Amino acid sequence: MIRINILAVGKLKEKYWVDAYAEYAKRISRYAKLTLVEIPECNDTNGIATQLFKESQLILDKLTGFSILTDKDGDIINDEEFAKIFLSLPTHGTSDLTFLVGGPRGCHPDIKARVNKTISFGRLTFPHRLARIMLIEQIYRALSVNSGSPYHK
Fold first, then answer.
1. Which one of 6, 40, 78, 132 is most buried, by most CB atoms within 10 A?
2. Residue 14 forms part of a structural domain
3. In the chain, which residue ranges form alpha helices assigned H by DSSP?
4. Which ranges of the chain have pLDDT less than 50?
């Protein structure tokens, strides 16, 4: 069974985000083991670069398996290309897939250099909490595509 880890900077606080995440997590449980790790958002008076560096130190040791960063400057892919990532895990020698959703200020360059792939949900900017919901829905969609489920159609 595939193990999917989502590392996300910040915490979902609003009930509607928590409920949306929980719904897709429940659906995914048929296909994969899903883990969420919420990384504390670092606030530092020394500036954004210091904040991003501190967050990166909390993230780097948690990147396991094949790792994918969601970032506005990443590759724009379609549903089928996203689904193929899950099928390609054995060629990478792993059954673990780790996604990272950065905080509102993005990610430190050390993270961008460390991940295996960077994808984008488009050139529009989305709140990072919404991006997390978009990610989990896309994960469910990809697993549905690969299983032949009608959800994708």
1. 132
2. yes
3. 15-28, 48-59, 79-87, 109-114, 128-147
4. none
